[in-house]
């Protein structure tokens, strides 16, 4: 009985939300707001991230060094850009990035930090940047040669 009541309440809730959104004129492609007030990207006019460079070579570094690179991008599209998430290849690489929407003509960033602890030899780490409304991630990479000096 409790399970049926819970299911009925959930169905009623989702039906109400659907009717309210439809009544407010929210159609696919229109800008809407999330609960936290962050803008959702307009699918018909997406932003277009253009990175000034997509690879950084740290050259030779020593084991245990932590090195970082900042990748800047411009929004060359008609709509705002929002970074949904950034994924790194392993736990030795972390990323920080622009949290606010990047308006057309403005710039944002992705900062990648590589920890060479436990690494040796040639290192190649790839970072994928996922933008809301875009199908493919932007790919960034860092390269280093970890050598004992």
Automatic annotation (TrEMBL):
UniProt key word Glycosyltransferase: no
Keyword Signal appears in the UniProt entry: yes
Alphabetized InterPro entries for the sequence: DUF1573, Ig-like_fold
Range of residues in the leader sequence: 1-22
Keywords per UniProt: Signal
Gene3D superfamilies the record matches: Immunoglobulins
Name of this chain's protein: DUF1573 domain-containing protein
Source organism: Marinilabilia rubra
């Amino acid at each position: 009985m409790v399970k049926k009541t819970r299911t009925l309440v959930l169905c009623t809730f989702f039906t109400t939300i659907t009717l309210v959104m439809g009544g407010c004129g929210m159609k696919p492609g229109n800008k809407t707001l999330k609960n936290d007030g962050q803008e959702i990207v307009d699918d018909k006019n997406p932003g277009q991230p253009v990175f000034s460079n997509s690879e950084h070579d740290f050259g030779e570094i020593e084991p245990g060094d932590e090195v970082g690179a900042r990748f800047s991008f411009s929004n060359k599209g008609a709509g705002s850009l929002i970074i949904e998430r950034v994924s790194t290849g392993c736990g030795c690489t972390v990323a920080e990035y622009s949290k606010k929407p990047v308006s057309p003509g403005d710039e944002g960033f992705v900062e990648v930090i590589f920890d060479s602890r436990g690494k040796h030899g040639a290192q190649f780490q790839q970072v994928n940047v996922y933008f809301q409304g875009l199908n493919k991630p932007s790919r960034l990479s860092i390269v280093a040669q970890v050598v004992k000096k």
